[in-house]
């Protein structure tokens, strides 16, 4: 279903945007609001200053049928978890052998929310795939949601909030895709590519060690290894994997490789957008195609300045997914004729999805504050016991996956 159409916030005619300048500064009034939130304490609950999505209780629209959501979530988790070595894009016999040797009780699948344990997830998904008709549908229970309610922000037409839309296991699986698989692909540019030559992790199997992650993800490499060597040693110093994952890595591009300096997409054939992520997103938001995405990584004191996403040649909706710590999100539009500012401040939490369509598609927006110690319990141990050097890494991070369509 088209969430934006269901919410009644899509204008009859798609708004033209090619006249918008991606380098234009945000309105001064909105800048002042943004700046105030860099130092302001965050109020609890819902009030006129900020909407905390976890406490929304005003009537919303059940815009996406629950059976469609559950099917999309189950398909996403099962396809990935049942393909061992999914962040490598191929099967690994050594790990398959370990899977067969382990004794796993399906009942424990209900307890996966406390940690990100791929081995249990993989074993469970395999058993589910082999015999989905017998016994309780534990995977179905794990991806089930109570409701699919969309909240519309009247001040900014087209802005739709779907709080807590993604179940815990979908959030965990999405992190595995983004930070193990996609980060390890050289074709996906990051903020470090301009100034650094990067040594990517190498596959370690068939010499895998039971209980230990294989060295084809940056999380399984030596944290003190200088995998990031400066192209100009006189200007930059080498970076360790620890420094990069803790602080220096700010964004990853998927599909269309956006040029942040020129604020445009290069005139070249982009890498293929991850098919599994596209299937998930397009099953929910049927009026857009997932062709490009930016994965933003935030630490406690990081911010994202006010900007507009106007470089795409399509006017389709933009999907924003929050994972990990909560944040303050400022969004606003200004009437060109009257100068009147319409804005809203949201507190976004892990699992929330924001859909920007219609007028809100080209609204100014930014993140003035990350709220530390707000990562939900089910993500606190990510990436899990196979990566002991990175225990509780997610307690210090917010990950935002921002997906858009490039061309009609």
Distance between the termini: 19 Å
The portion of residues assigned to helices is 10-25%
Written as H for each helix and E for each strand, in order along the chain, the element string is HHEEHHHHEEHEEHEHEEEEEEEHE
Which ranges are low-confidence, i.e. pLDDT below 50, for 5 or more consecutive residues? Answer: 4-15, 84-136, 205-214
Q: Percent of residues in beta strands? A: 15-25%
Total strands: the figure is: 15
Query: What is the general shape?
Result: globular
Task: Kindly describe this structure.
The protein is 23% helix and 19% strand. With 408 residues, it is α+β, with helices and mostly antiparallel strands. The strands form three sheets. An eight-stranded antiparallel β-sheet has the order 2-3-4-13-10-15-8-7. A five-stranded mixed β-sheet has the order 1-12-11-14-9, covered by helices on one side. It has a two-stranded antiparallel ribbon with strand order 5-6. The longest helix is centred in the N-terminal third of the chain and has 16 residues, at 66-81.
């Amino acid at each position: 279903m088209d969430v934006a159409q269901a919410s009644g916030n899509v204008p009859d005619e798609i708004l033209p945007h090619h006249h918008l300048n991606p380098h234009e500064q945000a309105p001064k009034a909105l800048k002042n609001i943004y700046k105030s939130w860099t130092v302001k304490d965050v109020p609890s609950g819902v009030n006129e200053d900020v909407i905390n999505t976890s406490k929304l209780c005003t009537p919303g629209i059940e815009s996406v049928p629950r059976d469609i959501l559950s099917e999309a979530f189950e398909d996403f988790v099962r396809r990935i978890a049942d393909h061992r070595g999914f962040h490598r894009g191929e099967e690994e016999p050594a790990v398959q052998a370990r899977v067969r040797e382990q004794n796993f009780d399906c009942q424990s699948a209900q307890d996966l929310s406390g940690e990100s344990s791929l081995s249990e997830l993989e074993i469970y998904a395999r058993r589910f795939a082999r015999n989905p008709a017998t016994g309780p549908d534990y995977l179905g229970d794990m991806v089930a949601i109570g409701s699919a309610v969309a909240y519309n922000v009247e001040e900014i037409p087209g802005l739709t909030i779907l709080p807590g839309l993604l179940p815990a296991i979908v959030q965990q699986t999405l992190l595995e895709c983004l930070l193990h698989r996609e980060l390890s692909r050289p074709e996906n540019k990051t903020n470090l590519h301009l100034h650094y030559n990067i040594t990517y992790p190498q596959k370690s199997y068939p010499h895998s060690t039971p209980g230990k992650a294989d060295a084809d993800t940056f999380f399984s490499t030596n944290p003190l290894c200088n995998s990031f060597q400066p192209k100009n040693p006189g200007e930059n110093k080498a970076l360790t994997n620890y420094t990069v994952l803790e602080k220096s890595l700010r964004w990853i591009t998927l599909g269309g490789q956006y040029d942040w300096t020129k604020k445009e997409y290069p005139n070249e054939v982009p890498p293929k957008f991850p098919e599994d992520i596209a299937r998930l997103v397009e099953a929910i938001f049927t009026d857009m195609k997932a062709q490009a995405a930016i994965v933003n990584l935030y630490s406690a004191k990081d911010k994202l300045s006010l900007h507009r996403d106007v470089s795409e040649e399509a006017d389709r909706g933009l999907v924003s997914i929050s994972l990990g710590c909560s944040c303050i999100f400022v969004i606003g539009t200004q009437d060109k004729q009257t100068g009147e500012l319409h804005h809203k401040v949201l507190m976004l939490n892990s699992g929330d999805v924001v859909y920007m369509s219609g007028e809100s598609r080209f609204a100014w927006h930014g993140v003035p504050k990350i709220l530390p110690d707000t990562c939900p319990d089910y993500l606190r141990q990510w990436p899990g016991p196979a990566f002991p050097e990175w225990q509780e890494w997610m307690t210090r991070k917010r990950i935002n996956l921002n997906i858009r369509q490039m061309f009609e």
